[in-house]
Amino acid sequence: MPSTLWDLAVAEVEKRENAEGDGESAEVSEKSVLFVGSKNGGKTTIILRCLDREEIPKPTLALEYTFGRRARRHNIPKDIAHFWELGGGTSLQELIRVPITNFSLAFSIVLVLDLSKPNELWTTMESLLQVTRSHVNKILTKLGKTNPEVAAEIKQRVWNNLQKDHPDYELVDPFPLPLVIIGSKYDIFHEFDSEMRKIISKTLRFVSHYYGASLVFTSKSEALLLKTRILINNLAFGIDKSKSVSVDHSKPLFIPAGLDSLHQIGPPPASDSDIGKLHANTPLELWKKVFEKTFPPKSSYDLQYPKDPAQDSQYAEYEVDVMRAQKNEVGGYSVCYSRTTTIAEVIIGYNHSTLFAFK
């Protein structure tokens, strides 16, 4: 008979593992998903809907964390999904390295792009994906020296969505982690001129296919959010993703990774003479130049987050604010800790004035 609290806990775990009666043990799956993308692009709303939480979304100040659980079958431990969300668009992109530290086989990226702001689209996408890719590649390089088998498995996994007999197998460059690109605010985008919609849609199709990513357009519509949830649940809980495809530019796009092709996408949306005047070293660079000819990009400076995160009113706490004011009066401040009913811990770093919020 169990006599200690530890014995009781072990007995309870064994009881749950054998609940199915066939002696099969159930392992808990843990996966992590990092949401990045356009400022005010709807990342929080998408996460809440995926977790079936009826909450009013609040602005994400910097880097926030939450989690969800889901049972595969009855009477077995629930799988866990860790959701990280980077706020501020591209202004705090260096924080991407915070969640992606101890590298695992179960990390995915969701890039949310605001379709209603096409002039910010390419800059946001390029900046966030470059920073993420650079950081992941550094980790893979280090991992390759200590555990080459695991590093090789991770590198090979990104090709799983593309069959070896796919005509574009030698022409794409898959992202080092599973990637989903979400075009948000489709309801506004749908009111654009048809030619503008076509250029944006074709460009995102090319980028997604080139990086081996899934692509979906969404809005606050329940039907579109449901399709988005399918892709997110595949990343977070390993649930089978839909194999249905929608490539009609007059409708919301839904293209799971590996189900598109360069032949179906077609050439960049420009005349042959215009393309001949452009100088590009890679297909991706060519598409970028064609896209930016129609939608001149905003500079990265214009996309910087202008507000001091430490001054955000939603995290105000009188005692801490008074102490910080006193610190500032004497020429600087040290690390401060705050607790509220919604934020478990707030850490303000004096070097970068960045803030991490854990829900």
TrEMBL record:
Signal peptide: none annotated. GO terms for cellular component: axoneme; centrosome; ciliary basal body; cytoplasmic dynein complex; microtubule. It comes from the Eukaryota. Keywords: Cell projection, Cilium, Cilium biogenesis/degradation, Cytoplasm, Cytoskeleton, Developmental protein, Dynein, Microtubule, Motor protein. One of its GO terms (molecular function) is dynein heavy chain binding. It holds the Pfam family DLIC. Its main location: cytoplasm. GO terms for biological process: intraciliary retrograde transport; intraciliary transport involved in cilium assembly. It is found in: Cytoplasm, Cytoskeleton, Cilium axoneme; Cytoplasm, Cytoskeleton, Cilium basal body; Cytoplasm, Cytoskeleton, Microtubule organizing center, Centrosome. Belongs to the dynein light intermediate chain family. This is Cytoplasmic dynein 2 light intermediate chain 1. It comes from Nothoprocta perdicaria.
